[in-house]
Design brief:
It is a single chain. By secondary structure, this protein is of the alpha/beta class. Strands 5-4-3-6-7-11-10 form a 7-stranded mixed beta sheet, sandwiched between helices. A two-stranded antiparallel ribbon has the order 1-2. Strands 8-9 form a two-stranded antiparallel ribbon. It starts with 19 loop residues before the first strand and ends in a 9-residue tail after the last strand. It is built from 8 helices and 11 strands. The chain has a single domain, classed as Rossmann fold (3-Layer(aba) Sandwich), CATH 3.40.50.150. It binds S-adenosylmethionine. The site of S-adenosylmethionine has 22 residues, from β2 and β4.
Length: 257
């Protein structure tokens, strides 16, 4: 359980609690110290100096460091209050390189095909149902330029927070269900987070994630478990709570093979 004691508040962002910053719309928590896969996105975004997209950017724990590295960042979130705080927290000299896009990904967010160097989606796509996740992957692939990269992490079925759901996940997996980690009422399994996280959460395992990346057309460069620094044990889950992936859109189109 998160210790709801105020720890620090040095800007407009709500105070962090054990490394997790609550969202204003009860969509879980922004991770205060970005996971290694998000650090890689920050680094890559800086190196390419191009246009990148952060889906579910919240208060900018990843978008602002990417701006500081020299990228031009589109920060997307479905809550405009998060984006306002992100804007206020961005140093003035970098605001010219920041675009804010309010809306629910994938349906309410549209960019030209092949227009982005990289996309980051951390702790966000697991709030979508299966068809929404498939649509999101297709849209991300389409928006990326050839050779562009997709940095992603999501909550795994092994997370201690939802250990009560784990036997159900295993049963559904054994029965061949397409989305065995789809909880329609996460509050039942983690009652102490009722009202802090959405009811529907779609936990994704390695098989589903691999299939999503490959069937969309991505090459998988890296895939590993990662942990949230300093978070309570129920989020750490012996290091298996989150699955992180770096995917790459191939440098060629199918017709060129
Ligand atoms: C759990 S927080 C993750 C924040 C940050 N990416 C991180 O990993 O620390 C989820 C954020 O995504 C936003 N969000 C949830 N569903 C979304 C969607 N379909 N499209 C855009 N933003 C979404 C929420 O408003 C919230 O700010």
């Amino acid at each position: 359980m998160i210790n709801h004691k105020h720890i620090s508040k040095d800007n407009n962002t709500p105070p962090s609690m054990n490394g997790l910053v609550p969202t204003l719309n009860q969509y879980g928590y922004m991770v205060e110290t970005p996971l290694p896969v998000s650090q890689k996105f920050i680094q890559y975004a800086g190196e390419t100096k191009g246009l990148v997209l952060d889906i579910g950017a919240a208060y900018g724990a990843v978008a602002i460091p990417a701006l500081k590295k020299g990228a031009t960042v589109i920060a997307n979130d479905l809550d405009s209050r998060h984006l306002e705080i992100l804007w206020e927290n961005t140093p003035e000299y970098l605001q010219k390189n920041l675009r804010l896009v309010e809306g629910k990904f994938p349906d309410a967010v549209e960019f030209l095909p092949s227009s982005l160097k990289a996309v980051h989606a951390a702790g966000v796509l697991h709030y979508l149902p299966g068809d929404g996740i498939k649509k999101a992957f297709k849209k991300i692939f389409n928006m990326l330029e050839l050779g562009g990269k997709f940095f992603f992490y999501t909550t795994a079925p092994y997370i201690t927070l939802f250990s009560k759901y784990y036997p159900i996940y295993l049963k559904k997996k054994a029965a061949g269900t397409e989305w065995p980690g789809l909880m329609k009422n996460s509050w039942f399994y983690a009652p102490h987070y009722k009202g802090c996280i959405p009811k529907r959460i779609n936990l994704l395992d390695e098989d589903i994630i691999t299939h999503l990346f490959i069937s969309t057309g991505f090459l998988i460069e890296e895939m590993e478990y990662q942990s949230v620094q300093n978070a309570p044990q129920e989020f750490q889950s012996d290091g298996k709570g989150f699955i992180a992936v770096v995917g790459k859109k191939p440098n060629y189109t199918k017709s060129q093979i």
